[in-house]
Amino acid sequence: MEKKSTEQLEAICSQVRRDILRMVHACQSGHPGASLGCTEFFVALYFDQMTNNPNFNLDGTGEDLFFLSNGHISPVWYSVLARSGYFESNELKTFRKLNSRLQGHPATEEGLPGIRIASGSLGQGLSVGIGAAFAKKINNDDKTVYVLMGDGEQQEGQIWEAALSAPHHKLDNLIATIDLNGQQIDGPTKDIINLGDLKAKWEAFGWEVIVTEHGNDMSAVVKGLEKAKSLLGKGKPVLNLLHTDMGYGVDFMVGTHKWHGVAPNDEQLENALGQLKETLGDY
Question: Are strands 65-68 and 208-212 parallel, antiparallel or unpaired?
């Protein structure tokens, strides 16, 4: 894919946010909050960082792989997959509709290009990413495996079993990212189960850890991913702690758990879309 400027990537983000809002509004169901917050990450990954192929091959041999662990933020992933050529953008109209390939949580039985595992049962994605990274090592495939997790998801025990496993097997072809927006469905993570010092914890488990302080600034996100890649091949997996704001881009949604899984009504949608420029054409 042709390298894009920061301004071009930011323009894609605006369209992706419009897609997210329209998808969730149309079916009055879904998770707009963290989808909006992770938009820069997904756009940077698919339009700037990954070696990926929209002519989808499930095995992913010779290309970078991405696994979404917190599958409830499927709207942002579906939008980015469509906008980067995996399927036609007008299919976004079918989100969460009966018999759609775009299920509320990503699924595989419908054969949607870009989706390699069903996800949404929290805690499992890193384990799958470790398996894929291990396979690439065995097959002498020098490409990278990426995994995205939520911060509330860090309360799942399986995460920490996986966190022990990857350094033990020296999977230095693996970059895991945690979306640190500080929110989960029931409230701030610090009030539900305080996560404490995640950097110190993951380092103690044997990971190389970087921090991306401004996860809604495209330049910072790109630099963070580039820094993560520069640390590969040195015997350790890499963790990227990505600080984002839930609901970013829409003034009445930003920074609160209340939009974790709530769809905007007609008036709210109009308000939100008025804050976001249409750059690629609405589907």
Answer: unpaired
